[in-house]
Amino acid sequence: MQLQLRHLLAFLVLVQSGGLLAADCLDFDVAKKHAIQRGIGHFRRSEDNQGKDYFMASGVGVRGTGAVSDPFGSLEQFLDTYAPGDRLILGAGTYQIGGEGRDGVNITGSNSVITAIIGQPGSKVVLDFSSLQGERNRYGVFLDGADCWYLENLEITGVGQAKPDSNSIGLLATDSEYVVLNSIVSHHNGGRGIQISGSSREVVIANSNSYCNFDDKTHKRKGDFLKGDNADGFGVVYGGDNSGNIQLVRNVAYRNSDDGFDLWKSSASVYFEGNLAVQNGYNCIDATPTGNGVGFKLGPGGESRIHELVGNH
Length: 313
Hints:
This protein is mostly beta strands. 10% of the residues lie in helices and 38% in strands. It contains 3 helices and 21 strands. The strands form 2 sheets. It has a 19-stranded parallel sheet that branches. The chain is globular and about 50 Å long.
């Protein structure tokens, strides 16, 4: 209760200081508060938010209308047709997402009101990217210049590493702002579980788990293989000039092959509260030592920033 109260007070300070502007992203403050208070499912929309709800089901091979009785068969159908403020609710099950491109799910575009992709509350909703065939970098869920988005209750797995010098990430948000990631699980990927990069700002990651991520093909230093040297649980890395106000609240990083939480070359100020890092720096399969194994790495390599850490372990 004390941690929750402290964070809500910090939230109110941001609102009063102009850090959160409804004019920039309607319902961002509502969605953020919903996540911080451990809310699951439908957050309350404002009266000005006229978004609609759409539905998606696993195993649907035909294009539906998104209605409960005629659900979408792919995330692309929603991303091709949504209007700002809409919500997609994914039913229980495993969704196999593959292809020869770099990205499994590509989310772009600037919205003026929170747009949401939500796994059905109380259900296990898995996005399996094990058949993704990008020749170099592979990203499971990629928010690329995506503004005003809310993702919740999604399990991301199977983003394999293609080559020794390639980068594979479960969920990547770059140059994105007003983003809330709530109750995301990212595991058994060939790189970081969840990464925030570029000029991203006003991003909240809450109640999420990242574990057993392992870059098994990484090598450098004139051909010496250093497997596991890049797969952190959570990374706020390679930040741009305008990045900032990144908050991580009650997340768990477990048995990732490099670090638990990493701010390598980050230019963002990051707020950590109630997070847990356990047994990172090991290969999750056979428990052999791999990467650095730092719980909370607050640099170096980027600009000097002030970070705040409250009640982390």
